Amino acid sequence: MNAASQAHRIFVIGGGAGGFELVTKLGRRLGGRGLAEVVLVDMKPSHIWKPLLHEIAAGTMNAHEDELNYLYYASENHFKFRLGALESIDRRNKTLTVSPSLDDRGVEFIPRRTFAYDTLVVCIGSIANDFGVPGVREHCAFLDTRDQADQFHRDLLRDMYAANVQTGPLREGQLHIAIAGAGATGVELAAELHAALFTMKAYGLDKVDPERDVKIYLIDSADRILPGLLPEISERTARVLARIDVQIITGERITEATPAAFLTQTGRVIPAETKVWAAGIKAPDLLRDLDGLEVNGANQLLVRPTLQSTVDDDIFAFGDCAACPMPDGRTIVPPRAQAAHQQADLLATAIEKRVRGNANLPLYVYKDFGSLINLSHQSTIGNLMGNLMGRQTGMVFMEGFFARMAYLSLYKMHLLAIQGWWRVALTTLANLLTRGIKPRLKLH
Question: What is the CATH number of domain 3-126+283-355?
Fold first, then answer.
């Protein structure tokens, strides 16, 4: 048996924020030294940081310019990339099966494949939870994937072009946009859409007046927007949204979605032909029946503080698809990008220890570095915790320019983990130099 066949086989399923960072670190530390074979499996050939999907949907970010190709970065960082979606695993034989890949016409171009693993890491993120509300799947847009964000943007442009040449009056709700869920995604999407609509008017779609013809609704069953964040962040954000005429509706639970409106439990009708569902998440349904791995009610894989599955030491899970206990034992780590980033760091160390024969794995403890909400060019609002600087110094509220810089730094930290300092510095400089010659909005 040759040395290559004896190398420890590490498969990472899902190239999201955490998965992409993890395979990059493992490739550099283990793959490049011949200590392990590191393989990333993802159903798409390229990566977009999920917290930016609302910008792609609004058109304020061009995904074609910012996407990162897995195959290229695999060659640069000593890991392999396999295109496909996880279909099943066989824990007894330690194999995983990847489903066939189909092109846009439904024609299979990669067959079903089975791979053997020694260490398996599942990090396939989350999807929207419609909670079984009638009409949501049929009549609402979702922003779980790059494809969905692109489709929403195309639909938005189509609707604005059509309205701009329409000779008769607009239908009630024709250009209204109702967003179910006033968490970070819903709030940031509302602000980006406001900016996008006024940019379209400036570019020539001027028969549609965003102030007169468009309404953006933000709806949540909680008593305030951003219910998972501090009340002060919620209050400051609500003031900014009110300034740009986003209609905030709280304390209303949506009971049905129709082609033309949302209906609530109090009998309220919110007219909107464009509806977005961002009212909660769950892990993909696939995880409910993954060869006996334990899950919770939201389909998340149950893991120990080592991020190992509760029933199999060779299978790890992290990010939104994993239920990792907090120190109190009663709550789980929140589904945030900062948690996935921290867990990827810890797992890179833990898996390297396993490959080198050290069974003493580190334990993950979530560190909350704060929360930042970006409201397009209107403002950025949030708080940073003192432990961001390595020591507990309390909480600092931020708003405006410095908050915006802190928000942008989160994305840069993600890029640094994948691309390194020089590439991030050069692409940042290139973006600054070309900003003035690019349209502010993607128009196709």
Answer: 3.50.50.60
